[in-house]
């Protein structure tokens, strides 16, 4: 769907301070507790997997890859879901394991075990957050440095390039042999969050994991084409229009520059496109050489906007997003904006100078 969707650039230096519980990654005790939570399930246990709202390749790929691994372990009562409308974005509809997806209304109300993927906080689980209380055990798999540790057991590794790194770590400890269908989801997650192995997150360990997944026989060319390089002609035209009205503000962010654009429900309707096609738009906007910071403001309600922020390294956009009620990673973050577009952008513009990491020479 997009090369820099939600968690892209996650492996860029984590925005974790010494006080972050997650800073060091999972301890041996965390891994042991997670393994026990799965191993000790009764044969008739109901397991519910949940990933974050507006799921991206890491959310869906980690969740569905892990689901198929659980299947191989013999878990029979297994559902996967995410908050909000049930439709899976077209780029991910072919993923092995999608048949396990149910709408949030059909998800087990009181599962024995709930496992959350790629969500930094309960708020990212929308109406499904209540399952954290109704489930016997809540296991959290994630890689956001800002993760609040909202599970009973938390496997949070801010150094992991994607949540699928954590998911594979747990599958290995459970003794699950990774087959091609499982590898497909985990690989989609890894390519999504590393921007197809281009971002700083692309460590030797990332390539080693990719090699291991590819060795199952999955086809990277086919996967990349479906996930990143395919969109309807209407979306191509829509992008043209929305990119055509992008604004460059060279003086913003203390001279590092800001480029931004917006898309409304009306834009989507005119081109007969679903909202998720806009997730890929930030990748085209952030190419702008003259701006360190890029921003796409996407209408999500009457006067409500889903805002994506990216930085090339001079600005900590997570600081901007957190200050405006959102979150994310240092160089890829977002928040929900309210009011007129101009006011939302004014809020960003005002916050940027406080988030500059590298003074402009
Ligand atoms: P996006 O721009 O939607 O691809 O998101 C980039 C990053 O920002 C991800 O790590 C998200 O977890 C985070 N993010 C986006 N929107 C929000 C939000 N409304 N609240 C908290 N975090 C967000
Ligand atoms: Mn994500
Ligand atoms: Mn992620």
TrEMBL record:
One of its GO terms (molecular function) is nucleic acid binding. Residues 46-187 form the DDH domain. Residues 1-26 are annotated as: Disordered. Residues 277-339 form the DHHA1 domain. This is Phosphoesterase RecJ domain-containing protein. SUPFAM superfamilies: DHH phosphoesterases. Residues 10-26 have a biased composition (Low complexity). Gene3D superfamilies: 3.10.310.30, inorganic pyrophosphatase (n-terminal core) (3.90.1640.10). InterPro entries: DDH_dom, DHH_sf, DHHA1_dom, Oligoribo/pAp-PDE_c-di-AMP_PDE.
